[in-house]
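Thread: quick sanity check before group meeting

JM: Hey all, I'm pulling together slides for Thursday and realized we never actually wrote out the predicted structure for the chain we discussed last week. Dropping the sequence here so it's in one place. If anyone has concerns about the input, flag it before I start.
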Amino acid sequence: MKRELIIFAFIVAAGFAVLAPLSNYLEHNRVRLPEQYVDSDLDLQGKKLKGYSLGADGMLADWYWMRSLQYIGDKIVRHGLDKLNIEDLTPLNPRLLYPMLDNATTLDPKLIAAYSYGATILPAIDSEQAIALTEKGIANNPDQWRLYQYLGYIHWRLKNYEKAAEVYEKGATIPGSPPFFRMMAAKMKSDSGSRDTARQMYKQMVAESNDQQTKAVAELRVQQLDSWDEIDAVNAVLREQNAKAGKCPENIKSIFPYLRTVRLPEDRQFQVDRDGRLADPSGVPYVLDTGKCEIHLDYEITKIPNS
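JM (edit): ok, ran it. Output follows.
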């Protein structure tokens, strides 16, 4: 027996001795998969379980819904916020987002939060998927005017202004829909591409959305539009002072007296931080490029998207 234990111990020790170099070899020589294979496909088509999950359809829908949020969140963390363009999320390769949301909304056709999230995020990934999911939401929830708001937004984003106007007009007929709908239907036929129209669009999304992710994206867009107006106004003053003095002002504070006469849209006011520096709508000071004699956002700090 003692001899057998010694032999067994020797075999185990030898196994561990071989295991370490073997693991190192496999780690250094394993096949590196392309980025598009990093995702693991859905283990099952959740929507096929509808009616067979012993009354747990809603729970499964919530699981897919929560997984979709985590899925995009993980993608953004790996990609890096500093490289993120919220107008184009295709570099994240989020190919499973639509299937997840489709599963969630098939299992629970009344899951408005999933439709709202998809209508906000999917346009930056695949516009056709965004339209398909939102139209699916309207078909299953014809009394939900917010879904018309999102569909109108998607078509406006695609510059399909005539279709956007049609969607807003339909939404305006739903009981409880805000006067905003008729106003937007009219704007789609006139100044549909203006910043003012965009600002009203996003402000309405902030005010009416029950989904925090949707609100966060819309708030960033409002801040971005406001910053564009401020940058245009400040740069106009800088050009004027540069022409008069023959050189660019050394700092932004020196043109503050001239900015007091500038009127921003909606009578907004310029804001300054605690140190008296001109700040963007998120509170981060603007940067003056004296070579170009213009200001721009501090992209390394501000949360306002660059595009």
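AS: nice. Residues 227-296 form one domain. The longest helix spans residues 212-245.
JM: adding both to the slides.
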